[in-house]
Amino acid sequence: MATATLGELATLVGGRVIGDPDLQVRRLASLDEAAEGDITFVSHKRYLAKLSQVRASAVILSHPVEGLAIAQVICANPYLAFAKVLTHLQVRRPEPQGIMAGARVAASAVIGEGVTVHPGCVVGERVSIGRGTILYPGVVLYEGVTVGEDCTLHANVVVREDCRIGNRVIIQPSAIIGSDGFGYAPDGSSYFKIPQVGIVVLEDDVEIGSATCVDRAALGVTRIKRGAKIDNLVQIGHNCVIGEDTVMVSQVGISGSTTVGRHCTFGGQSATAGHLKVGDNVTIGGRGGVTRDVEPNQVLSGLPVMPHKEWLKAQMCVPKLPEMRKEITSLRQKLEDLEKSLKER
Amino acid sequence: MATATLGELATLVGGRVIGDPDLQVRRLASLDEAAEGDITFVSHKRYLAKLSQVRASAVILSHPVEGLAIAQVICANPYLAFAKVLTHLQVRRPEPQGIMAGARVAASAVIGEGVTVHPGCVVGERVSIGRGTILYPGVVLYEGVTVGEDCTLHANVVVREDCRIGNRVIIQPSAIIGSDGFGYAPDGSSYFKIPQVGIVVLEDDVEIGSATCVDRAALGVTRIKRGAKIDNLVQIGHNCVIGEDTVMVSQVGISGSTTVGRHCTFGGQSATAGHLKVGDNVTIGGRGGVTRDVEPNQVLSGLPVMPHKEWLKAQMCVPKLPEMRKEITSLRQKLEDLEKSLKER
Amino acid sequence: MATATLGELATLVGGRVIGDPDLQVRRLASLDEAAEGDITFVSHKRYLAKLSQVRASAVILSHPVEGLAIAQVICANPYLAFAKVLTHLQVRRPEPQGIMAGARVAASAVIGEGVTVHPGCVVGERVSIGRGTILYPGVVLYEGVTVGEDCTLHANVVVREDCRIGNRVIIQPSAIIGSDGFGYAPDGSSYFKIPQVGIVVLEDDVEIGSATCVDRAALGVTRIKRGAKIDNLVQIGHNCVIGEDTVMVSQVGISGSTTVGRHCTFGGQSATAGHLKVGDNVTIGGRGGVTRDVEPNQVLSGLPVMPHKEWLKAQMCVPKLPEMRKEITSLRQKLEDLEKSLKER
Questions:
Q1: What is the domain-level CATH number for residue C289?
Q2: Does C321 map to a domain?
Q3: Cβ–Cβ of C233/A213 closer than 8 Å?
Q4: Which of residues 86-125 of C touch B (CB under 8 A)?
Q5: pLDDT digit string (tens) for C74-124?
Q6: pTM summary value
Q7: What's the distance, CA A89 to chain centroid?
Q8: pLDDT digit string (tens) for C126-183?
Q9: C173 touches chain A (CB under 8 A)
Q10: Domain total of chain A
Q11: Which one, of A22, A111, A104, lies nearest residue A58 by Cα?
Q12: Which residue segment(s) compose the domain that C207 sits in?
């Protein structure tokens, strides 16, 4: 925890202060929970009404509010400013501890300055860890792994042999990087395991969620590109490529050898078949299922996916299906009756 | 393992004995596998026929069966009685072992009486562990965690900083409590991580399944209330509240800031969008997808969810869709033909 | 890494050489990445065109290609041959290391010859480990577990008490074998935990993916039969039986007490309800949902599942639903108009 003046925070977020720029705040809190000495934020105008009762000492806003009793920090993007101010006030990287008692680090490993390796970690032969990186307890790095600078690998993360992790990568607890891809050659009615001799590369600024699995390539590389953010319990198959700044929500499944473009968003439990290409700036709705290549710049949902708006309309019809069937039967009957009565005339 | 007399077991389950109350049994077994010396149970009348061939020495029943050669324990709820008798006969909490060699416990941690901390555990600064709690090997408690009394944390469970766990909580292996919620502020085409500075609270008598993830709140608390039972591989997003005695089957996904009422049941792979409210006593069928607030006391299925019975009927129509389309085309054709022929008359 | 002559590789895969059988190759690589000294393969004729530009020294083919500049290994099944050659050239089982410093092995455990137990492993009382088996760091074997010969248990795998693992079993990192099945007896509005006192048996040649959960039986056995291959993040409920050589792709969920036949294939995110029987040689498409027993030798998709071809046709109609509804309304209107005009004649 730290304190900051409103002036300092305005500089941090590229904004300006209405009120006393020397006012100190010590905590960012939500509109409902903020108390004196706190700064809060309004990221959507529907919450502006709450400002009349707020107990905070300052508020981050996109536009000045007249007659407000508390100080204001005005900036273009209050939600981004909230994230930056929260980071500034309340996130402290722990002091480096070096290789702590109870950690096992192979003699041939190269450990940078300011690294922390907690008890219970096992670091294999020829591993390289960049400066400032933290391994929480129980992290296992197999031989030949490289981890960049200022990374955070949370407890019980496993990185298998020869995988490469960039800088500022965050891996939540128990994620698994570089387990074998799922590949077998049919051999009569049984299966012969295809060795998975490729690797995984996580580029800079990637974040990987808890218990998420990124499988190593059969041959070559499974790659998560710069800035991609992957939530918990996601499966990324072998030889996939996930583009820069792409976001995947929990429980997504990407089958092997699929390439996803940059700046895509995959909703929870959505999935793709294997060997597909998904273009840039594609949004797949929750539980969408991609079974063919997808052109860039689309919003799709359903199984198989269709334009999201079409899907919304189609899904509204599903509860009407029994009625539709009855109606068709009734129409047929009426038509037959009519034909019959005409014949009889 | 232990033995008990039928009289003792009848007292345990609030029932009565038909036969010798001093008869000793040593094991509860299924109808098919029970042998002499065992007690078995019938929880549904469709299994009563099997009683003629049972080799058990006693049986738990809801109503007396005439002419049965073996002793009977009669009680209101044989299925609950089965669980209680099985617990009584075959579940022994291991003897406390204290802090075992190979465990690492911070000096500032407060460890209750009768606690067992297995080798490979790492217990951080200012952790508190209540009496009788067991940590199996590889459990990692980050700094500031509190764990109540008589809890069982299975191997490789991770609880991140400051999270709070009640009494009699059971956490299956490799579950992750308190990993970062999935929150980013768009910053141009990239994303800026929103620090997740809240916590997770698991109240008394909660059970969490293997590899299940309960994310810490961004600000505030993600709360699993008293008695909720969460199966394996479930995702609970940041700032969710899960009500008392709510049950979630494997692979469920609850998106952030959603509040689920008490005594709900979520079937396997079902999910909710974020920022929703689900009322009390709601049942969501397997793979149901909740996209709006849900009133209490309903049984819903489908994506988006609808009343379960409607969904059953609607799903039965899906295979008929191609036929329905053809029928509509044919009806249109017939109608046009009819109109044409009428004009020509 | 090793080298081999084409003659040796032809013998390995049951094929024959066109070219110099004494030619040495040192690596298997894909058509695009192969360089001099490498062997490559063509498993589908659509890739034959690439052979004109390949830089490999040899290629595995199903039929001879005339006029090819490089040596050929001709065999019946090039994809299987690829797997075998890759294994031969590039997979080396690590030298046994015994019980390494930092591993904890109970005094009563029986450890075979040539076993490796890495640092951070915890092996409980009365565990038995067959010769040649490797436990990577952080593996936890509870008391009474038996592991066969030549198994590989990757980092942070947990096997709970008394479970039995056959020979040549591979378990990817952080898989959980033998956690409690999800069983509770309703007790008023709360739940009473049903002790899960059964075990899990993984038979020979099974492979289990990362973070996959195989729950122990309530009473009796959860069994994965010989040769079954289970991908990452899969849930297998208590008392299930999975047949020989059955394949389950990532994120599949099999509910409790379901029996799946041999040589089945379950696509990603597919699932079954509990207490079902699925016959042999059944294929369930991605995200298929099985809600009733399934006869052998079928290909099914959808929720609930239907024949795959029916499902494909039905799904193509879904985006047309709004149009179909409109059409029905319009037909009804036309028919009414027609009836009316006829009455008026």
A1: 2.160.10.10
A2: no
A3: yes
A4: 104, 120, 122
A5: 999 999 999 999 999 999 999 999 999 999 999 999 999 999 999 999 999
A6: 0.97
A7: 23
A8: 999 999 999 999 999 999 999 999 999 999 999 999 999 999 999 999 999 999 999 9
A9: yes
A10: 1
A11: A22
A12: 98-309
